[in-house]
Write a structure and sequence with these properties.
The protein has 138 residues and is mostly helical. Among the domains are: 27-87, Orthogonal Bundle (Arc Repressor Mutant, subunit A), CATH 1.10.10; 104-134, no CATH class. Helix content is 41%, strand content 7%. The protein has six helices and two strands. It has a two-stranded antiparallel ribbon with strand order 1-2. A hairpin with a 2-residue loop joins strand 1 (104-108) and strand 2. Helix 2 (29-39) crosses helix 4 and helix 3 (46-53) packs across helix 4. It is elongated and about 95 Å long.
């Protein structure tokens, strides 16, 4: 236990000096866009970019998500950075239809059950139990 007399005895205490940015920094839209753009470069890792800018990777992932959703696009354009454009899917005019699959044939307890391929598993199990219980027993 330390008290006032410890200093008089010549005992040194450990002091820790914290360096780096303070908490609750405010990032401008241009800075966010620049950091996000850097993290999207080919071969870059989010953790490395976050470490370089002294932010948490989760914060950078949040900024990237916001950029994908367009929240940063307007602010980034004002800062001279390229805007993020959302991808819009277009309709495909000629959709190839699947050929109808043949029914599956299952033989249970001397009976042949033809099952359509789109039958759900619970209903199939119920049918197979019913066929098995009504079948001939040796």
């Amino acid at each position: 236990m330390d008290d006032v007399n410890d200093d008089a005895k010549g005992v040194y205490r450990r002091i820790e000096v914290l360096t780096g940015p303070g908490r609750r920094r405010q990032w401008s839209a241009a800075e966010k866009a620049r950091i996000v753009a850097e993290s999207l470069e080919p071969g870059r890792r989010v953790a490395e970019v976050a470490r370089r800018w002294q932010i948490c990777p989760q914060q950078l992932f949040g900024w990237r998500r916001a950029a994908r959703l367009g929240a940063v696009a307007d602010e980034a354009a004002a800062g001279g950075m390229p805007a993020f454009v959302p991808i819009i899917a277009t309709e495909v005019s000629a959709v190839a239809e699947r050929p109808k699959a043949a029914p599956i044939e299952i033989e249970v307890a001397g009976a042949l059950v033809r099952v359509p391929p789109d039958m759900d598993a619970d209903r199939l199990a119920m049918v197979l139990r019913a066929v098995r219980s009504s079948g001939r027993r040796p």
